[in-house]
Amino acid sequence: MPLALLALTIGAFAIGTTEFVVMGVLPQVAGDFGVSIPAAGWLVTGYALGVVCGAPLLTVLGTRASRKKMLMLLMGLLVTGNLLSALAPVFGVMLAGRVLASFTHGAFFGIGSVVAAGLVGPGKKAGAISLMFMGLTVANVVGVPLGTLIGQAIGWRITFVIVAALGAIGLVGVAALVPETGRPEGVRVRTEFAAFRNVQVWLAIAMTVLGFGGVFAAFTYIAPMMTDVAGYSEGAVSWLLVLFGVGMVIGNVVGGRLADRALMPLLYVSLSGLTLVLVLFMATAHHKAAAAVTLTLIGALGFSTVPPLQKRVLDHASAAPTLASAVNIGGFNLGNALAAWLGGMTISGGLGYTAPNAVGAIMAAAALLLAVLAVSLERRAPQRQSKTPTPTESSPTTEHSVSP
User: Fold this and answer.
1) If phi over 0 gives left and psi between -120 and 50 gives alpha, with beta otherwise, what is residue 90?
2) Which uninterrupted H or E stretch holds 64?
3) pLDDT of 47
4) What is the C-alpha separation between 64 and 66, in angstroms, rounded?
5) Which string of DSSP letters, residue by residue, matches 352-364?
6) pLDDT per position as a tens digit, 125-174
7) Cβ-contact 333, 219 below 8 angstroms
8) Domains detected in the chain
9) pTM listed for this prediction
């Protein structure tokens, strides 16, 4: 593995811990600030919306700088945002810190995906992207459970200080290992936006929003679901997050290996399986062992969609991939924000902590329908091209109007 990929993985680990660790300490944060669990869920929604807004904004601004310098700047924002959250005197300030940290997310993975894909040869690009995202998945196996355990034992503020330290390590890794390539030549804002003229780019982003949003509908409220419904102790949430993280690692590896060979069949299987498992989670959440197994499957099926969807965007926006890649990462988080909000609405409406699973199943099923539509449109495109008249098939009127 190129050392530059290792640096991207380190940064992804810090970002992944930042994004997901709040789920494990959500009850503690809500209690300290005197807000409800659904209100505390805005720490998830706000982060996700920050990614959606920050991804295109910072990526566009980054066209004037080298990709290495942008990655370093983004890691600096991550450190600052986490420190602000750790020191927040009121809930609003913590939310602001989460949003600031979130500005790193989309642009880092968007630019990082382009850098990672450029480090390897053809046929290995999805694998390189999945290696970078490995940091995000490993964060759920190590960083998030450990952060949750520390937050429950010592205090959630210490957790965010540690996450800020992880961001600093990521900054050093990028500075030391990612090669300086200079400002990308030929990159213009107008060129980057041109990629969005392709309907397949939009369909891939929409699949991202709905597919991974289905995962977050369940995962955002996993702590109260496991304690109040499944009957686990508060301390057990840490190892349950480990299981979810293990599932994510498995899904990421499988997705990375198969996306270069069978991208759309992989998405069909993953989204179908995710829909089914989320429906089952409404029942299995009431039983400890079944809930643990289902949670692992949700992580695996959900994250197996990440490398293929990111690669599909890069494939259909190959002439200007950076902004499209970043917007797709924003799509993951737009889905997260939408799912967290809808899931919170079902809980506030008195439907119980398992109700967000139904929201997730509907979102995943919608993503599957979009995947079918995308393939259908691709199959029709060659047929339309084959029916386009060639110069030798011009009408007699056109031929007679041309001077000899």
Assistant:
1) beta
2) none
3) 85
4) 7
5) -TTHHHHHHHHHH
6) 667 777 787 887 788 778 878 888 898 888 899 999 999 998 998 898 88
7) no
8) 3-181+188-379 (1.20.1250.20)
9) 0.71
